[in-house]
Amino acid sequence: KKELADGNMVFFGDSYSNAVDGLDNLKNYNFGENFSILKGTAELVAERRQVPTGNDTINFAMYSLKTMSYQLQILGDQLAQPNLAAFLQDKFLNTLTSINLEDTTNYTFAVTAAAGSKAADRFRIVFKPISILPVTFTSVKATQLNGKVAVEWAVSNQLNIRQYSVEKSINGRTFTAVGSQAAIGVNGSSQAYNWLDVNPANGFNYYRIKSIDANGGFKFTSIVKVILGKGAPSFTISPNPAEGNTVNLQFANQAAGNYTIRMLSIAGQIVYSNIKNHSGGSATQIMELPSSVAKGAYQLEIIAPDNSRQIQKLLIK
Fold it and tell me: Can you tell me the distance from the alpha carbon of 67 to that of 288, in angstroms, rounded to the nearest whole number?
């Protein structure tokens, strides 16, 4: 039977300060185990601070733990941001565990006779930037293929990459590694890779590629999505509004062929034009917009192989 030993909360908002002030709540110590937020020399039970960036850290302090197993439960809610990841750092085991910023992450640890296992500063949360679609990736796509999903990606200027990991999700938030490919070729080369998902879920299937370099550093591509099952043909733009110059175009149950994609300003000027080859069914393709595209509202025109047209609104933040 699990029992709550202690807990604390961190609230994020643009109006809050990272300094300890009257909006923060100091810790009242328990007779048993204590787990608090450590801010300088102050220990808090509730902290209000600025929205996290890729260089933030939340330190914890713990005392009076018994020799037994414990579980940290971290509940993330509405914290997901483009290019931001969070990890629980365990200094005793020298590990980093990914934290779900939109759901619950459980971490089980043991307190033993080893002094470091109950060190007051054993745990902290670190935020790190994630590079979406780094320059070594030139494309990533996922395509329905006879009830399976073919995941393909291409890279250029491949430097010191050890391997690529294929990660999958059915909700678009929690990803699990399902396959890997060793990097091939020489430094600076261009390569294409593929992986086949032979057991896709009925409905939504999300994929992303993680590149791992020789030093253990990693980067992620954008997320691509395939929908299996019957449904009306459609196109979906994501994210919308878009941040930056990477936009995903979801083909749902569309015919095979070449699709002309044009992005027009409100004045009708063509600011982007490309042709995407779609192999049929459902798949996601990436559009890399010019860096010169200004923030604002645009129309995305999609011309199908039969010359039919669809126009959707796209906002660039």
Answer: 54
Amino acid at 301: E
Phi, psi of 249 (to 5 degrees): -115, 115
Both structure tokens of 134: 């780094």
Q: Kindly state the tokens that stand for 86.
A: 């969070």
- pLDDT tens digits for 101-158? 878 888 888 999 888 998 999 999 988 876 544 447 888 888 888 888 999 998 887 7
- Cα-trace Rg, the chain: 23
3-state secondary structure of 241: coil
Q: Could you tell me the pTM of the whole model?
A: 0.47
- What residues pair up with 316 in beta bridges, in sequence order? 242, 296
Most distant CA atoms of the chain, gap in Å: 74
Residues composing the chain: 317
Question: What residues contact residue 8 under an 8 Å CB cut-off, 6+ apart?
Answer: 27, 35, 36, 37, 44, 45, 46, 47
CA distance 261 to 239: 17
Backbone angles phi, psi at 130, to 5 degrees: -110, 130
Convert the pLDDT of each residue in 191-208 to its tens digit. Answer: 899 999 998 988 888 899
Report whether the peptide linkage leading into residue 239 is cis, meaning its omega lies within 30 degrees of zero: yes
Nearest in space to 299 (alpha carbons), one of 270, 256, 275: 270
Token pair for 69: 């197993």
Cβ atoms 141, 127 nearer than 8 A: no
Residue carrying the six token digits 């959707």: 312
Please give the Cα distance from 108 to 58 (Å, whole number).
Answer: 19
Distance CA 316, CA 204 (A): 26
Distance CA 295, CA 292 (A): 10
